[in-house]
Design brief:
Helix content is about 65%, strand content about 0%. The chain has about 190 residues and is mainly α. It has a single domain, classed as Arp2/3 complex 21 kDa subunit ARPC3. The protein is globular and about 50 Å long.
Length: about 190
């Protein structure tokens, strides 16, 4: 039986007991998953809908709070050095021309951390995984909408940066929970 401070699933427990190289590889893989998912987008105004939120939540749920947040930070570092990892293949410098997504990008860090933190503390149970994903999404939206409100006003930020995304984000939460539960049952080989 796991205690409230142990990693939550067989996957996260085996990752936690792995060597540093495996943890680094998991963080880099998580960042690449987020980058790849950012290329799957549906145009919306002023913020596109992408699969990034799915990947951010999944990375948090699977890697845990610290490694999940680290994967997001690596993803943002990749964007900062000019790699085309943001939505539409844009580098971070593009945020100066199109800053509406900046708050959501910052929110990714908190979303991965919160999703992982709750999943870790609830021993990977379904309810904890769902609550972790929902709270992670809430953190992401709070940062994103708050920053967007500084650009276009609170009412418009909610109208354009939150309401159109509710259904899609609920579906991404369900998908992230399902994938995390499936992968969570797996363990990394003991030799890693």
């Amino acid at each position: 039986m796991t205690t409230p401070h142990q990693p939550s699933t067989a996957f996260t427990r085996s990752l936690a007991s792995s060597n540093r190289a495996v943890k680094v590889a998991a963080v880099v893989f998580g960042s690449l998953l987020i980058a790849a998912s950012s290329q799957i987008e549906v145009p919306f105004f002023p913020v596109p809908m992408t699969m990034q939120t799915f990947a951010v939540l999944l990375v948090g749920l699977l890697l845990g709070a610290r490694l999940g947040a680290a994967a997001v930070l690596v993803y943002l570092a990749e964007a900062a050095i000019g790699l085309p990892v943001l939505s539409g293949g844009l580098p971070m410098v593009a945020l100066f021309a199109k800053p509406a997504t900046a708050g959501y990008l910052v929110g990714f860090i908190g979303a991965a951390f919160v999703a992982g933190f709750v999943a870790e503390r609830t021993a990977g149970r379904l309810a904890g995984t769902v609550v972790g994903a929902v709270l992670g999404e809430a953190v992401l939206m709070a940062f994103g909408v708050a920053f967007l409100a500084t650009l276009i006003g609170a009412e418009s930020a909610v109208k354009y940066g939150f309401l159109p995304f509710i259904l899609g984000d609920l579906l991404k939460i369900v998908l992230a929970v399902a994938v995390a539960r499936g992968i969570g049952r797996l363990s990394l080989p003991a030799t890693l």
